[in-house]
Every structure is written in C-alpha cells, then in structure tokens.
Amino acid sequence: MKLTLTEEQQFLKDTAQSFARDKTPVTHFRELRDSENSQCWDESVWKEMVDLGWSGILVPEKFGGSEFGIAGISVIMQELGKTLTPSPILSTSVLGVSALNMLGSDEQKKNYLPKIVAGELTTALAIDEGNHHNPFAIEAAAVLDGDKWVLNGKKVFVVDGASADIILLVARTSGKSGESNGISVFVANKDSAGLDITKISTADSRNYANIEMSDLKLDQNALIGEKDLAGETLEKILDLGRIAISAEMLGNTEEAFEVTVNYLKERKQFGVQIGSFQALQHRAAKMFCEIELTKSAVIAAMHAADENSNELERLSSLAKFQAGETLHLVSNEAIQMHGGIGVTDEYDIGFYLKRARVAEQIFGTSEFHQARYADISGF
Amino acid sequence: MDNLDQFRLEVREWLEDNCPPSMRTPMVPEEEVWGGRNAKYVNPESKLWLDRMGEKGWTAPNIPKEYGGGGLDRDQTKVLHQELHRIKARQPLNSFGIWMLAPCIIEFGSEEQKLEHIPKIIKGEIRWCQGYSEPGSGSDLASLSTKAEDMGDHYLVNGQKVWTSYADKADWIFALVRTGPKEPKHNGISFLLIDMATEGVSTKPITLISGKSPFCETFFDNVKAPKNNLVGVENSGWTIAKKLLQHERNFISNFGLAGGGTGSGADVVNIAKKYLGEMNGQIANASHRENITMHKMKEHAFGLTLQRSGDEGAKASAASSMFKYYGTEHNKTRYELMIAAMGNKGLGWTNEGFSDDEQAITKAWLRTKANSIEGGTSEVQLNVISRRVLDLPN
C-alpha cells in the first residue's frame, strides 16, 4: 500500500479544491447560517456536486456510479472541509450508499442507488441513542407483527436527519443492548406515520435531528439486509464514515492552520510580526507535525478501506483519533493565536472551532477510538 | 514475473547461502559490529557476514557500484531490506561512515576522495567519527572555533571537539574547522577529514547520567592534516555540515522509532503486562493502559508518516527536522511509560535487586534524554520547521 494518491484521486482532489474555492468559500457557509434555510445546506450547490458525480463515488457502475472508492470521496471531503462546505455528502454519498450497497438486496439497490446518484434522494443513518457514540447500544426495537415491522424507540444526533428523504433506522430485532448480534437496518420515508423527526440546533449550524419511532409500521421489504445480522457490516459502514469525516476534519485543520499561520505573519505588536515570537513559532511547528501525522493516518485508512485490508478497523480508529486530536488542538490554538478577533463572530476562525467539536463527536470521539484501538490491538 | 520479483528471488537465494546461522538470531550488544582497523569480533560469523555483505556492497545498497556500493535503486533497496527483515538478519555493520559521511562525500567530495574513502567505509575497514560540537558551540554550531591554519601543503589544526561518539575507537574523524577566522561565522568553516592516528590527536571518554557512554572529548594539538583531505571548497563547509546533519537526523529518528540505540528493544505493552499484570488479556491498570495506547497510536501514525515520506520521495530538509523532533520526543515518552509501568523495578542501578533487563531499561531511559539534544535539539528542529516550512519571520 503506497501512501500517495493515484492520478485519479489527485484529479478529484483538484476538482474539489477549485469547487470549494469558487462556489463555496466560507462566506457561503456564513450566508447559510444567517439565512432561513432550515436544512443548512444549499440545494443548488448539492445539485452541482451531483453533476460532478460526487453522489455516486461509492456506487457500483451498474447503478450509475463511478466506484472511485473511499479514497476518492475522502479527498473531496478534505477539500470541502477547508471551506466548511455544508452538504449531504457524508450522510448520503458515504453512509446511505454504503448501507444500501453493502446490506441491501439487488432490488433495493436498484430502487435507491440510481436515485441517489441522480440527486433525487438524500439519506440519513440513524444509529446513536445516547449522549455518546456507541454503535451496538441499540434499544430501539423492531418486531414483526403480521406482515409489518413495527418500530419503537428513539435516535439522536442523526446527521442530516432533518432533511433526508429516507432514514436508515438501526433497530434491535433480537438480543440485548450492547450486543452486535440482533441488529437490523430498516429504511423509512421521512413522512412515514409514526416517525417523528425533530431538527436540533447545534453549535456548528449544521443539520442534525432527533428521531422518535412510535409504532412506526414498515413493509417487510423495508428491512435492508438480513434480520439480526447487520451488526458486523454496520461497523464497516461506520468505519467508512469515520474515515470520510476524518478527511473532512483534516481539511478543517489544514485551513484553520493556514489561516492562523498567515495571521502570525500579518499581525504586528511591539513593532514586529507576532510570528517572530518563538513562543508562537514552536507551537505552530508542533501543530505542523501533528497535521503531517494526521495526513498519513487518513491516507492509510482510506487506502485500507478500498483494499479491503484486515487493518481497516484499527486504521479507521487511528484516523478518527488522530484527526480529532489534531483538529482539537489546532482549533483551540487558532483562536488563541488570533487573539481578540478570534473570539468575534465576524471572524471566520470561530466557525472552525464550533465545527471541530461537533465533528469530533460524530461516530466516536478520540476517547472512543483510543479504547477501540487498544482492544483491537490487544493492549 | 517482473524484474523486481526476479531480484527478490536472487536476494533470497543469496541470503540463504551467505547469511551465517548466528547472524539470524537477535543481536546481542557485545556482538554489534562497527568495523575499523581495531575491530574485535567476539563472534567470527559477524566478520564473515560483514565481509560478504561488504563485498556485495549491500552494507550501503544505494551507493553506486563504482564506489563499492550495491548500486540498487529505491525499490530494490526496499526489497533487500524486506528480505533481510524476513530472515531476521542482523545489521552487518553500524557505521557513521555509511549513515552520514558517504552521502556527503558523494555529493561534495572529489573523485579521488570518493575512491579512497567510500569503499573502505562500505567494507567496514575504516571506522569514522564525527567532530562537530565544541564546548562553546552546541546548538550554535557555526560559532565553532577549532582552527585550521593553511600551512601550504597541510592545515595545522588546534582546538577541541566534544560529544564525538566512539572517538576512542574510530580511525578517522570528519571535522568542522575554522579556516576563515575573519569571515562571517558561517562562511569561515571547512569540512576536513583527519586520520585519528596523526600525532597530536587525543581523546577522553565522557560518563553520562546513564553511566558509561561512547561519547568522548577529542583534542587537536598542532595536528597536521594534508590539504587534499578538505572536502569541497575551503570556507564553504557549512553547506556540507548542514546536509550531513539531515542524514544524521533521519538516522536518529528512524533508530529511535525502532527502539534501537538505547540498549533495549523492549516493547512497552509487554513490559506493562509483565509489571502491572493482565486482566482478561489486557494491561491491568486502566490509566497506564490509556497512556500507553495513546503513545502506540502516535507511534503508528508517525511510522505511517515515515512511510509516506518515502513513498512521496522525501526531499525537504524540513521533513528530517520533523522526524528528528518527533521521533526523539516519542522515544523519550516510550521510556518514561516503560519505567512508570515497571514501578520500583524500573529504578535499578546495579544487579543488586534488579535483573539485567531491568537495569538496561533504566539506563536506556536515562540515555534517551540525550536523544532530543544530540544532532540538534528539539528546540532547534522546531526553529527549522518554523522558518523553513512555515516561513515564519525571524
């Protein structure tokens, strides 16, 4: 496994870089935040991403996708992360597509994947139920009643849950909370009776929802994959999501760092550029090192995913851990090094801090992944 | 089968025939090979292994064949290392000559110097040491004052070097000397090769906080060095010095990561399980386990970064500063975690109450404190990153 990008991946990255620079600079996010747009992402921008093929990066060719892999979508998300571009790319192009493609029947794939590629359908994966990511702690229950599945329970902090056309609901069909066995995935239209979706308001001004299922009745073909047996595949789907968001977080980090280093060169106090102070230089140099480590962890994880490596779990946890630690550090230092203007809403750097903490939570914090890595490694 | 696969088969076959059985067992410190005129071989197979590898030029695989190297390209070198690793072959030769000097002679030396010195380095016939630091010139290396006066056919060298590793065992020294006393400090330095057997050269060992060390002070008292031993142009030795430091940094950071150079390749997880106990196969103490996991994850990411740098075809000097900084700080942490996990067993000094392995770890812990000082302190590396990579102002 070479830790470099292929020409194809480099091309996708360059395209995404121009896109983010030209179409969605940080002002785009600011306008959305200050607007009445409740879904927190822009339809026309998403349409353009779809036209570039980004909705179908993970979709098999026979369903209209390009199969450019996790590496392909990760480098795009890295670039979009630099300008904090909001879009349903994680929830739909990574999680929705992976869940449907890895768990679904041919008919289900045929039914959903081409629509996702065409931009006609967005999705959300509803998994977490508590204050912390814990993928097998599923209490939401699905029982078969006659020819209908009946679901009851709640989901929290569902990424893009407030706008998705269909929700992929993770529910328990047997066993007890904490067990990998007995987990199943269902698909429901957002306006199904018994499905109550409430948008929550978060610090990063993005789209998340809490979801209540009260006697939500679904047809038998709403079950995606085999009953009870989704647990293991779900872990893999989550790993892909973790890698993709790690790439986005790397992009957040790179930009926050660059903006900060530039500020150190511009800002003068005591008659000199503050970047000439060694107290700041050394902190900047240490951040540089951590960013280099993050790049390596992310690129190794995305290639591992595409090569179906048996190191995927460990590398995915390493990537999310390292991306989280580094973004945490850089987002804090960025504010401190900007001084007073760093804590004003007028300045963009605060957006990176707010986004950072939310992204750190999604699919497991550094603490979560540290524990997971230790278990997998036998420490 | 492509050429590389073919090469791999050839290497495998050659190693099978030529790597002596005892050279496939874990290295023991007293059998480490550094070569040189006065080398003693506790195990005769060490000498055999060195001679065979030296003859192939595989002690320095990427140096061109005309100078006695292996003449291998990057991919072939990687294959050779993989195959050596596969049979757990010992390092045939430790050599400052190979790690630091040879690349600089190739880049800056005369054809005559290349043909004279490099083959002997590669075969382990001549052992080199490094004369850089002086008592008054540590981080501010360019302020060095050992002077070399032009006496027509030779330089007359007077002064003192410090931290010269293995000066008491080396045959030759590559030294930075001041040839231009009136020039601005960086512009009056030359890179000079001096035979340690020359009259007026003397050495004295230095004892460290960890005990005995390979470090020495080296004194030059009216030492005559022939002028054709000057590498590059007079007064432009600083460029060579910097280049050599990059090679040194890479070496130190790689060495640190591998757990070498510190007397013990002990794994922190195994140590923790042994001294803290196991519970369900895990390190029994939660906070130690957490600290160690953090450390191991950083190590993993750092290892991937070294790999990525290789895959990208590492170029920048800044990368070597990063590796030197991160690798040595990381190594210090490793030993702190190790002795912490060992509790009072990590604090032994002699064999009264402590096993050999335990003492070795304690000594190694103390020795790692020098890792982030030697070869440019961590603070100097951070300065290099700030200035050269981030382009922050002076």
Which secondary-structure class do the elements of chain B indicate? alpha+beta
Residue-averaged pLDDT of chain A: 97
Q: State the fourth-level CATH superfamily of the largest domain in chain B.
A: Butyryl-CoA Dehydrogenase, subunit A, domain 3
Largest sheet of chain B: 4 strands, mixed
Element-by-element helix/strand order of chain B? HHHHHEEEEEEEEHHEEHHHH
The percentage helix of chain B is 40-55%
CATH structural class of the largest domain in chain B: Mainly Alpha
Note the overall shape of chain A.
globular
> What is the name of the CATH class of the largest domain in chain A?
Mainly Alpha
| Silhouette of chain B | globular
Please state how the strands of the largest beta sheet of chain B are arranged side by side. Answer: 1-4-5-8
Low-confidence stretches of chain A: none
CATH topological fold name of the largest domain in chain A:
Butyryl-CoA Dehydrogenase, subunit A, domain 3
Question: What does this protein look like?
Answer:
The complex is a heterodimer of chains A (379) and B (394). Chain A is of the alpha+beta class and 379 residues long. Chain A folds into 3 domains: 7-121, Acyl-CoA dehydrogenase/oxidase, N-terminal domain (Butyryl-Coa Dehydrogenase, subunit A, domain 1, Orthogonal Bundle), CATH 1.10.540.10; 124-224, Beta Barrel (Butyryl-CoA Dehydrogenase, subunit A, domain 2); 231-377, Butyryl-CoA Dehydrogenase, subunit A, domain 3 (Up-down Bundle), CATH 1.20.140. Helix content of chain A is 51%, strand content 16%. In chain A, strand 2 and strand 3 form a beta hairpin. Chain A starts with 6 loop residues before the first helix and ends with a helix. The model of chain A has no long low-confidence stretch (mean pLDDT 97). Chain B is α+β, with helices and mostly antiparallel strands and 394 residues long. Helices cover 45% and strands 14% of the residues of chain B. The longest helix of chain B has 27 residues, at 286-312. The chains are: A alpha+beta (379), B alpha+beta (394). The interface between A and B is large, with 38 and 38 residues.
